[in-house]
Amino acid sequence: MNISVSRRFTAAAALAALALGGLTGTSASASPAAAAAAPDIPLANVKQHLTDLQSIANANGGNRAHGRTGYKASIDFVKAKLDAAGYTTTIQQFTSNSAVGYNLIADWPGGDPNQVLMAGAHLDSVSSGAGINDNGSGSAAVLETALAVARAGYQPSKHLRFGWWGAEELGLVGSKYYVAQLPTTERAKLSGYLNFDMIGSPNPGYFVYDDDPTIETTFKNYFAGLGVPTEIETEGDGRSDHASFKNVGIPVGGLFTGASRVKTSAQVAKWGGTATAFDRCYHSSCDTTANINDTALDRNSDAVAHAIWALSGTSTPPPTGTVFENTADVSGGSADNIVQTFTVNASSEVANGAWKLRAQDKASVDTGYISGFKLTFP
Ligand code: DTR
Ligand code: CA
Ligand code: ZN
Ligand code: ZN
């Protein structure tokens, strides 16, 4: 990659040395590392998780509901994948309606323990069906994002935590239990909770929770980048697990593709589909793997990863060890806009903040100094 530098020279008594060099641990003016971009979340992987959850329901009376064998099998399925990927997992038990419920918490080792970014989804279904859109879709997208973090060896400045909730369908029971059990000091460390409940609806809309503005903007910007219009989610206040966190003052956000409400003609014009329910199988036995819109699931899974990377305060440390510094003493003159090109070895060096442009004044021995410069990436 070539970096071209254009700068103005004026006839004045100073000689500037322009250094384009790597960051060193001692550099007082090291610029913060650039944010790394989130990886694409493979739709096929997310759909495989849904197929596996469908199989679990099929083998356990047709559902994955609280208190049923299908739910515990779902928890064990998700936990096994996270354990294999290097997560520190915890199963939290609670009782609701005289049945034992389970939350699964997975911590990614590393990051600032005082700055925790959390994402979650409820894993339970209603008793009438497999609950693939509601909420296998959110559970699978969060799972695959967690696995993508592990595959990337991602080490953001914040600590990452993921949660899969039990008994949401009974009234946010699992997430309420988790928050209630969380000491106030631990709650204060949560910089945000991202909730994903129904993100693959067959006749999808693209709704963004309008709770924390920073989280909302992060999602809206992502979809704007795809050219996909979004609307503020108005149906769900208090109707999913983000409410458990919002109720104790933790910033929340999330995504939703619609449930039993009917898509308006204006929304059809915006998103396509039909002026029928966003998910005609909501809480029904037909909420199976056939009840998923792949485009919506893919876009929202990628949005989950985008938000995790964007909000986790990426601070990939600059390289250590030998630092190459390319100092070019530029003799002055009256010419304006002299462009000088420097070559760095790879864009990753720039992306990770391994390079920066620094202008230094030196004792004037010639005419011309840098009065300002622009770093452009051709
Ligand atoms: N509470 C979810 C479904 C649901 C209905 N409206 C919204 C809005 C936002 C998130 C979720 C929902 C459930 O039945 O599991
Ligand atoms: Ca994808
Ligand atoms: Zn539901
Ligand atoms: Zn749900």
What features would you describe in this structure?
- The chain has about 375 residues and is an alpha/beta fold.
- It folds into two domains: about 5-35 and about 325-375, no CATH class; about 45-310, 3-Layer(aba) Sandwich (Aminopeptidase).
- The protein is built from ten helices and twelve strands.
- The chain has helices at about 45-60, 70-85, 130-150, 175-180, 185, 215-225, 240-245, 265-270, 295-310, 345-350, and strands at about 1-20, 90-95, 100-110, 110-120, 160-165, 190-195, 205-210, 230-235, 250-255, 325-330, 340-345, 355-375.
- The strands form two sheets. Strands 2-3-5-4-6-9-7-8 form an eight-stranded mixed β-sheet, with helices on both faces. Strands 1, 10, 11 and 12 form a four-stranded antiparallel β-sheet that branches.
- Helix 3 links the parallel strand 4 and strand 5 (about 160-165).
- The longest helix has 21 residues, at about 130-150.
- It starts with a strand and ends with a strand.
- The structure holds D-tryptophan, calcium ion (CA) and zinc ion (2 copies).
- One zinc ion binds near residues 134, 168, 197, 198 and 240.
Labels describing this entry:
Aminopeptidase, disordered N terminus, alpha/beta, globular, binds D-tryptophan, 378 residues, single chain, disordered C terminus, binds zinc ion, binds calcium ion
